[in-house]
Design goal:
The chain has 405 residues and is of the alpha/beta class. It is built from 14 helices and twelve strands. It has a seven-stranded mixed beta sheet with strand order 2-8-7-6-5-3-4, with helices on both faces. Helix 2 runs parallel beside helix 13, helix 5 packs across helix 10 and helix 12 packs parallel to helix 14. It is globular and about 60 Å long. The N and C termini lie far apart (53 Å). Bound molecules: pyridoxal-5'-phosphate. The site of pyridoxal-5'-phosphate has 13 residues, from helix 5.
């Protein structure tokens, strides 16, 4: 078969390969600590499970939903979003919610609607690996801005601004962030709002899928809260995958200016018809209180695991690679700042994949090498295991990385 050039441009996920290896090793009887999880390893809130069961009684739950989503859910999700971000009621008429098959699908739709061949989209590295792949899928060019660990993975505003050209169509902001586990401060968002105001043709895609997983105060702020006028060119991505531990149910929300709805609707109507009806119907009636209740013990666990990580990094003398996480459930381990790298070239060669593979073989701990996430010689640690397991797993990894001393 002669395949398209487009499909050949999409990279295979290394994470999935390593995951498959971890599964194989586990099958062979080896104790494996999987720190690659991009999801909360818990059952969702019982209220949602009960809602899904109850909705199975109705025929409409097995039939197509309206293309842009079940009307009551769109209304509820928009109301919940406005309440959580403390937006004034006066902006409600400007915005609409579209329900898709996960936030990844929402992102695919919005990039399809924005990006023409050769258009540039700015992404902040380290980034979630799907951003550049999806930008390329639509013929766009991902333009990277590096956020350095020693700046707490916060991009410098002048660097961000220096990447904007006449070809820039959009900029993707992800706060709280995958893979760094940080979120941007209110003052950063103020500066960002001021800077982006100068470029009226640039759309801001704000990926807020981890909004509810901020485990220190104050909670995340966004540029459009500082300057609501920017809502007219902002598209917000959200969903239930992370905050309700439902990655498999595939529900994502796009909050966008009303004028975009007919275009996103046209595209979604021709590609997937709608998101699944059963879950949409079950979500109607679930307010933000449910999410809060569900996440309270989970956030306590993440806070505790972040403390364990900090203490162990100091115990193993890895303080140089430490920074404080405050959201999502990840940490970027700068492998180059560990004794394992003594005498190893970390400037021109990226060893992340081979090191993560070696760590898995030697210690049974699976990590995500960050080569696909726009950062070399680094690995992502997921902080969602139990306190006992995370301590055991981190001790194994840190012992391995410091044994060359
Ligand atoms: N955005 C980020 C930053 C993510 O990490 C993920 C999932 O890992 C998504 C979006 C996609 O979420 P969904 O499961 O709703 O497609």
């Amino acid at each position: 078969m002669k395949l398209s050039k487009r499909i050949n441009q999409i990279n295979e996920s290394i994470t999935l390969k390593l995951n498959a290896k971890a599964v194989e090793l586990k099958k062979s009887g080896k104790t494996i600590y999987n720190l690659t999880a991009g999801q909360l390893p818990f059952r969702p809130h019982e209220k949602l499970v009960e809602g899904i069961i109850a909705e199975t009684k109705f025929l409409k739950s097995f039939q197509y939903a309206p293309v842009t989503g079940v009307a009551e859910l769109r209304e509820l999700a928009l109301g919940n979003f406005m309440k959580a971000r403390k937006l004034d009621e006066s902006v409600k008429d400007q915005l609409s919610c579209i329900v898709s098959n996960g936030a990844k699908h929402s992102l695919t739709n919005i990039l399809a609607a924005l990006v023409d061949k050769g258009d540039e989209v700015i992404v902040i590295a380290p980034y979630w690996l799907s951003y550049p792949e999806l930008i390329k899928l639509w013929g766009g060019v991902p333009v990277e801005v590096i956020a350095e660990r020693y700046n707490g993975f916060i991009p410098l505003m002048e660097e961000l601004e220096s990447k904007i050209t006449s070809k820039t169509k959009a900029i993707i902001i992800n706060s709280p962030n995958n893979p760094t586990g940080i979120y941007y401060s209110e003052s950063w968002m103020r500066d960002f709002a001021q800077m982006i105001k100068k470029y009226p043709d640039v759309t801001i895609v704000s990926d807020e899928i981890y909004y509810d997983l901020a485990y220190f105060d104050p909670t995340p702020t966004y540029h459009y809260q500082v300057d609501p006028e920017l809502l007219s060119r902002t598209v917000i991505l959200d969903g239930i995958s992370k905050n309700l531990a439902c990655t498999g149910l595939r529900i994502g929300y796009t909050f966008a200016p009303v004028s975009l709805v007919p275009y996103l609707s046209r595209l979604q109507g021709q590609t997937t018809s709608s998101a699944n009806s059963l879950v949409q119907n079950a979500l109607v009636g679930m307010d933000r209180q449910t999410i809060k209740e569900f996440l309270t013990p989970i956030k306590a666990l993440l806070r505790k695991n972040a403390e364990i990580l900090r203490d162990l990094m100091h115990e193993y003398d890895l303080g140089e690679a430490f920074y404080q996480v405050n959201g999502a459930f990840y940490f970027v381990l700068d492998l180059a700042k560990t004794p394992y790298f003594n005498g190893v070239d970390s400037k021109t060669v990226d060893h992340s994949i081979s090191i993560c593979s070696e760590i898995l073989d030697e210690t049974g701990v699976a990590l995500v090498p960050l080569s696909d996430f726009g950062v070399a010689n680094a690995a992502r640690i997921s902080l969602v295991l139990s306190e006992r397991d995370i301590e055991k797993a981190l001790r194994l990894v840190f012992t391995f990385l410091t044994k060359k001393v």
